[in-house]
Amino acid sequence: MAVRITGVELGSRAQRLGIQPGDELVAINGHEIGDVLDYRFFETEKELRVELTREGEPLQVELMKPQYASLGLEFDSYLMDKQRSCRNKCVFCFIDQLPRGMRETLYFKDDDDRLSFLFGNYITLTNIDDREIDRILQMRISPINVSVHTMDPQLRCKMMGNRFAGDSLRHLYRLAQGGIRLNCQIVLCPGLNDGEALEYTLQKFWELGEGLLSVACVPVGLTRYREGLYPLVPFTRETAGEALELLERWGDRWKRERGARTVYPSDEFYLLAGREIPPLEFYEDFPQIENGVGMLRNLQDEVDWALEDLDLPELEGKSKVTIPTGEGAYPFLDALLDGCRRKCHNRSIEVVPVKNDFFGGTVNVTGLLTGRDLLRQLGGRDLGDQVLLATNMMRAGEDVFLDDVTLEELSSKLGVPCRRVGNTGEALVRAIWGLPEPETPGYNPYEGSWEHR
């Protein structure tokens, strides 16, 4: 297999060796190159023998370089290969609950182990074979993020709509035994994988030993577009509380006997159960914050830090900002901002809970609010001088909501400037004071996945 080279970086080692766009990369040091993992892994050596073809004719170049230094080749896509899609038909899949007519990319189901390592995406292990597991072990690709949901093979087949889903659990054991660290995820569905089934799953996770880094448990999200799908029910205050008690009991055991909590309920469980979010130390080093575990507590800590340590100016004159949020996080966020209100007397801060009519069902998180719902529910209100919007409402790196309404369009129709705010406490405090955004890392083009929202 050969991979077509589409570009060569100026001044790079590849350019100095005469490698050209249009050449095809065949192998490095005798190892065939099929995708980005092969390329990144085998180019790290100090001495390289690079095999190519040019217009069908074989070509070979040799070089010495510092270890880990790049050759400087560019390819059609980041993966140098097609992105692997999901082969499952999970009963809880969020993509199957989307309305028709949204942009095509939202309906793609990602299940690519390469993106798990490169960008933290979650995979199910159902579309890779023993050869791919061998490659992961050889390259020491770690950690790997896995959507497990249950360790009961038969139940996993049922939940994931795939008769091979149970057998693929053997990959989990091979990875753990081979020294690969695992972050695992459970989408918890009442009546399916909770209760005794969850107890069984956590017992099997315990048996994975040191290979298991963390487990995040999130409640199933149900939209109003479930006609013809498996009859799932949402969590109630009572059932969410029962799940919390079981998960915290196992987390306490891990902490007591192995020194780290390891098992974490997502913030949504605490909101659903009407319980306080645990203190900062509960989340240790926040191993699953991208999965909504400890995100609210971390935000509180960042806001408190910003109020104490930032040189915030005195504001003159009366003004007001409006902050829309999902219904689930509204009580926590409104209380969190009391510190800002006490310190910023001249600026009124109104937090507005926005009902997600677009998706409906039990969807109440901020990141899935749409431009249309914001327009309908904010229109006609006194929004003050500015509307502050969490950046996770919009497409990564773009000012566009899930329903393709733009930030500019929202500002125009509401008649008030709308500002995109980074997902940190410092960014939020700065925005309330009218200060510029802090410097933040670049956007991850693959961040987030429908499955665990």
UniProtKB/TrEMBL annotation:
Residues 1-67 form the PDZ domain. InterPro entries: Aldolase_TIM, DUF512, PDZ, PDZ_6, PDZ_sf, Put_radical_SAM-like_N, rSAM_sf. Gene3D superfamilies: 2.30.42.10, Aldolase class I (3.20.20.70). It comes from the Bacteria. This is DUF512 domain-containing protein.
